[in-house]
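Hi L.,

You mentioned the student needs an example of a multi-chain input paired with its predicted structure. This one should do, with 605 residues in total across all chains.
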Amino acid sequence: MSAAENPSRAKVLGKLRVSDNAFRIITRSAALLVLALLGGVIVSLIIGSMPALHALGLEFFTTQSWNPVTEKFGALAPVYGTIVTSLIAMLIAVPVGLMIAFFLTELCPMWLRRPIGIAIELLAGIPSIIYGIWGLFVFAPFLQQHVQPFLISAFGNIPILSSVFEGPPYGIGMLTAGLILAIMVLPFITSISRDVFDAVPPMLKESAYGLGCTTWEVFRNVVLPYTRVGVIGGIMLGLGRALGETMAVTFVIGNAHKIATSILAPGTTISATIANEFTEAVGDIYTSSLILLGLILFVITLIVLTIARLMLARIEKRIG
Amino acid sequence: MASSFDSSLYAKRRRGNGISMVLSFAATAFGLGWLVLILGVLVWNGVGGLSLSVFTEMTPPPGSDGGLLNPIMGSLVITMLAVAIGTPVGILAGTYLAEYGRHEKISSVIRFINDILLSAPSIVIGLFIYEVMVAPMGHFSGYAGAVALAVIVIPVVVRTTEDMLTLLPNTLREAAASIGLPRAHMVWFIAYRAARAGILTGILLAVARISGETAPLLFTALNNQFWSLNMNAPVSSLPVVIFQFALSPYAEWQKLAWTGALIITITVLALSITARALASSGKQS
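Structure written out for the whole complex:
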């Protein structure tokens, strides 16, 4: 009896083994595809930017001229714009985001925490093109009429600040782009800081309260130092977003290829330059210059995001 | 005892605490204010143009009325194709990370790279697909747009699938192994079923993420003024049309842009709220 059954049993088991191995191999190759994607992005961008590197050399990184007619391109203006707009965004979003997280973890009544947390996260869900159209038609005119004239007159007589806030109030420009970026990265900073603040062992906080600390003192001297690595990780993650954000910035930056000291002036960022000009770029050098800009952006964000992830991994390990 | 109590220091500390509380209230109101403001403006400007003709008519030439039928259909098809490409890859990769190679060195590398892809600038993804698909094929196409969006879908699905599978109790796997079930069967018939709500949440989140994406479509799917669902040719999509129409000088186009923006936002917010509800219902059961 068993002699009649054994061959078919072995056959079934063999089949199962084959399908089991096949599934394992398929999942493994899908996982390796993720690695290949990142490699593919880098390699394709490097290959695509070769013509520009050959034609323009290192000058590309040191000049700010951007002339499609003479095919002289320099990355300085977009890189400058990217850094300035992201800096403005972080200057606003970091303190506000941390204060919201403080509110959500220490002060807010329990029943309100979830709704407010979700509302803030919905801000992150709004597509960037919506921020763009809102920024162009609503926010920029508002800044132009009410905020920028005030800034110009308020800082006009102070030596260094006067050059930061000089020129006519265009409405669109680097300040507007930076402010919109601030709103966009706010939810990222808030939700990550809230998560790490929540993970502080209650015992630590309670001991500080037991010593007579106020809520703010507990936050400032116990919670923040304990979660510093995680908070910095969250901030870097937000910075990564701000650096690469495209559509919202493209609408309101003004696309001017020059470096202005005034943050009220129109400028450009790497992503806005690519979005505005790529489909209209004529000639290999022009297209390739834009791809080289993309490569620069990718390398910068890669570094920022790597730091962010390393720090978040460290805090995860500590909190467990 | 009472004389050694420094009441001025105490008052100062109380004041500092009060100020910080006021500031945190203000910050929260500031954050919520933007949400209300943006959604309010969107409804205010978009709802007027919302009519049946938006869903039944083509995009108009400058200066006349029309609808958004072709970009809406284009977006739907591109998004579905992107999900169809990206989801299986994402689920399988997430499965490997959670079920097979959980403690392997390569898995932690993949996890790290995936997290970076998750927040990589989407415009760079567009450039990548332009280089590997549009340039070799010689023309823009809906396929290229769908693949670009699929590249954005993959890391989202990988992450949620892995997280959801990791949350499953190991006793499930041990029970399956004890009755002699091969691993693939355990994953397929037990792990996937137990984690179904979570995996679905990930897919919904990915759809929400890509339905508003504009940058990767600009130079992959490009745009098309006419009715075309030929995926081998440029295809119109809602975000790109909004971009083009909003920056145009024509009032009719700008109005349509607002309406399109409202449609996208409602879709995206509905998707992410559904995903959230699904995730929390999955946790309770």
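You could point out the following to them. Strands of chain A lie at 66-67, 72-73. The radius of gyration of chain A is 26 Å.

Best wishes,
N.
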